[in-house]
Known about the structure:
The structure holds three protein chains of three kinds. Chain B is an alpha/beta fold. Helices cover 50% and strands 16% of the residues of chain B. Chain C folds into two domains: 4-59; 72-236, MetI-like fold (Orthogonal Bundle), CATH 1.10.3720.10. In chain C, 71% of the residues lie in helices and 0% in strands. Chain C has helices at 10-42, 62-70, 73-104, 110-119, 125-138, 145-153, 156-168, 172-179, 184-195, 197-212, 216-221, 230-235, 245-265, 267-276. The two termini of chain C are 20 Å apart. The chains are: A mainly alpha, B alpha/beta, C mainly alpha.
Amino acid sequence: MLAPATGLLAVFIFVPMLLTLWLSLQSWSTQTGFDTARFIGVQNFIDIFSNSSIGRDFKAALVNTLIYTVLSVVLILPLSVAFGLLVHQKLAPGGIVLRTILFSTYMVPMIAVALVFSKLYSPTEGPINQVLGWIGIPAQTWLSAPQTALGSIVLLNVWQQVGYFTVLAVAGLTQIPDSLYEAARIDGANPVQRFWSITLPLLGNTLLFSAVIAIINSVQVFEPVALITQGGPVNATNVLTYHIRRVGIERAQGGLGSAMAVTLMLVLIVSITALFAFARAREARRA
Amino acid sequence: MQLLRTFARAAGTAAILLSTTALVQAADVSFLTHWGPDTVAKLEAAAAAYSKDHPDTKITVRAVPFGDLLTTLRSSGGGSDGATIAGIYDAWLPDLAKDKLVAPVPDAIAADTKANWPAGVVGAASIGGTLYGIPNEIDVYALNYNKKLFAAAGIADAPKTWDELLADAQKLTDKSKGQQGFGMINSWAAGVLHPFASLLVSNGGDLVVDGKPTLDSKQATETFELYEKLIKSGYSDPQMATADANTTGPFLDNFVSGKTGMIIMANWWESALKAGMGDNFADVATAPIPVGPSGDKARSISYSWMTVVNAKASADEQKAAWDFLSWLNGPTSGPNGASAMGDILMSMGILPSRTSDGAAFKDKLDSDAFLKGYTETLANAKGFPVVLGGQEFSESLQKTLEAMQFGQLSAADAQKTAQSDATEILTRAAQ
Amino acid sequence: MNNATTLLSRRQLDLVRIVWMLVTLVLALMTIFPLLWMLTISFKSQAEVFQPTFWPKAPSLKNFVYVLTEVPFLRYLFNSFVVSAAVTIIALWFHSMAGYALARLRFPGREAIFLAIFSTFLVSLPVIIVPLFIVVRSMGMLNSYAGLIVPAIFNAFGIFLLRQYYLALPRELEEAAIVDGASYWRIYWSVILPLSRPIIASLAILFFLANWNSFLWPLTATSDQSLWVVQVGIASFRSQYASSWNYIMAASTIVAAPMLLVFIVFQKQIMESIKTSGLK
């Protein structure tokens, strides 16, 4: 019963994973046969953390990926809750329409989103700066300057994904029984107090779930970088997925690419484990 | 039971048909290219014409965007199911040859190639004397400028020296109008490197000599300082220089809309300029790269493309591929003694490198005012270095130059970093 | 949920209502603007794309016609559909089996296997893409539907959710079947699967969408144009020296429209199933 799934797991995940681990200890040119691989121990790992151009590029890519992930999660989660509340409330109409519009951004092919945004972000001719000009905000540099390029990609990601996470938040919100709110209201709690003591805690699991998905998605970001910035300017948007592909495939440095991949895997394992440990501690505290 | 028998019969017939068709088709040749749909259509027409006379060779064309070309080649190559023929950029050749992914040109065709192409391009397609591909496109750089803006600023002719370049850039810069005198490019390797390298060679310098980087030379210092001056004085705005993955973007838009006075770019962007400027294209003129204080004459960087054959393809496929390529690049396949390849390139506004093509298209080339600034430079062009680790070398130098563009590094630091990184990369790659 | 009615006066209530509506409106506009922009470009001509005007001067369907006729775009749509549907159906089947086994069956090493499966959640495609490519190539699956479908099936996330769902199911129905002497297979087919409708529905949507939007793997695994999926097909409208914006946007509209339509029509069901699947 378990066989088909575990069979696939073994062939398409474990075997490549083990291969990656093995390759990270070799010096190997990606398109050649495995017989050309030369064992060099942990030299690849030393290189990617060294001060050579390899090391500097890798550390920068790691930092970029971390910044991107943190910014994305920090923006998406609160926004999804806020929009979820907006969609879920019964005061004013338009909730359903808003939900449809927000979710629709998730359906559009990433390549179209990337290209449209690269035009929208154009400093001199793009509509975004034009609109900002109408309300008196000076033109921003968006993708054209190293300080703002990564943030611009984060905004692109938030735009595309917030609808999906809003739907998840709404699902979580609908599971909170109205009776709890009634009871709190009778006790004299105002809307803000009700939010902090009822809504937020009971959304805890949904938020944890969303956080995990958001982190995994963000770490895997690839299309906007590959389709617009190609890692620039000045490698400001060089994220790990793009960098691994460039090193491992374009430059055919299979050993280095694998070492970077292994490091990425370890970073992910550590962060998700930490997240779950934090959640479990929170559960234990509440019980 | 009846169903089973019918099925078996159908399967049997299919098997026989498949095996006979396999016998008839001697070679299935696939051609990997980065050309757009219209150009691919022309290539397919040429392939169809060839297959009419050579019915045992079937040619299919596969196009991918330039940004994905090397990755596609490397991920699908290294196996017999990879593309048989690929159009590659000359800088990729050393690493591909070292990994034995490309096959040497058969002797007869190699001799013909050496006789019909200029030595420089043949050199770029060879490693250690062995020819690996048939060159086709050659690209050079020139100073593009906006005649209207020049007239408005009171400048009569294009700058011929670096001092004139700086003076003109100053006159053309007008922050209130969002106008910059000299446009740079970033976020795209060739866009960053080639103009810089063209200025360097026009200053008598070189990027790499005998496999060792020479970015610490006096000529290089002057070039780094030129860039620093352009940025610091505000004649060049890095935020107007962004390129996207399709080699279009703000740097192009700003020149098209008349916000950039001068920019150094390659000949092939003519079609993009025409598409964007329409009638205003008449305002664009080209001139050779300005000469630096340590240089003697205007030079440009050149680079070329060539078609190579997959070394892992079967012997039949390789032979069929070389025969097709030899015909495609030969004088019998195109109109008026030109090659079909030359004809395809000219349709994109790209210069063919075969000597006889240059002659066959002489009238067309002479009458194109835009291309004149480029064809004049062709004779003095220096090939962009074709070395092992070339891709990594390019990307590292690109990052350093971009850092300088955005004021993160001074010219002196940029030069030091560039030279040390380049040395480390090239030594490591040569191992 | 929002019991403001008893806390605020009538006028204050109206004010809050108006503010909510304004916020909703602004939000909707901000979200939809890029999409509208994309739509208007699909009706523009090549030259017009360069100009920063919003509405096309002479809107025409030429781009759509080009996309559907000059390139085998219908083929790409077909490929995307076949691959996404196949992966979704097979994945749901395999993973519900695995989820059930992990939730109910007792065998040595069960916890270890579950942990192993869960840890692969963290292995993302870029990490293993080079070795995966080599594995797929050595199995002769490159450039085939199998190569597109099979490696995409395994989804640790799906197994995890299904296991959670089955753990939460009351055991009475199964226990009744066991008493009747049914094998685990029978229980799975006749009892568990029908009960899994909500979770399978929501996972089906997620899996299908994820595969429909998949770009990196199809790009790497297929060189044959007849096997391209829509995402790769759209990317092919970019060439080295220019980008056919109008074709790209027209193609994207063609790709996004059906999914959008499905979502709009089946909205309520989709929301219901996400709710009842108990994503906790």
